[in-house]
Design brief:
Number of helices: 5
Shape: elongated
Order of helices and strands: HHHHH
Distance between the termini: 18 Å
Protein name: DoxX family protein
Keywords: Membrane, Transmembrane, Transmembrane helix
Number of domains: 1
Helix content: over 70%
Strand content: under 5%
Organism: Flavobacterium quisquiliarum
Structural class: mainly alpha
């Protein structure tokens, strides 16, 4: 039980990114439509589906690594998969932050920071 805080943060990140990936997969067209409008005045306006696909891949990698990392941490105190899950989570959040800043959606960017803090904590604790 020494790793309970790390396991809880990995569970939080896994739920966040697997659920987000699920929504992107099953509501792809709705997401692309909304994001095309959101990024209509940015350099991403013609690249929304490609950018969304890249984000989806990184989110799924993040979520899967966090699940495996939580299991590994619980069963044998291994930290490798959890650390990589936390790092990929940070990368995913930085990708989203970049997009929100490009779109000048500062409230959206501020919200991403709330998720970024525990992700960085996980990187620190699992490193």
């Amino acid at each position: 039980m020494n790793n309970i805080a790390s396991i809880l943060i990995l569970a939080f990140l896994a739920l966040t990114f697997l659920q987000s990936g699920y929504e992107k997969i099953f509501y792809w067209n709705d997401n692309v439509t909304w994001l095309k409008e959101h990024f209509s005045k940015t350099i991403l306006r013609n690249h929304v589906p490609l950018a969304l696909a890249h984000l989806l891949i990184v989110e799924l990698i993040s979520g899967i690594l966090c699940v495996v990392g939580g299991i590994q941490l619980f069963t044998n105190n291994g930290r490798e998969f959890g650390l990589y899950g936390a790092i990929f989570s940070c990368i995913s959040l930085l990708m989203m932050l970049f997009g929100q800043r490009l779109a000048k959606d500062y409230d959206g960017a501020r919200t991403i920071v709330i998720y970024f803090i525990p992700a960085v904590m996980a990187v620190y604790w699992l490193n």
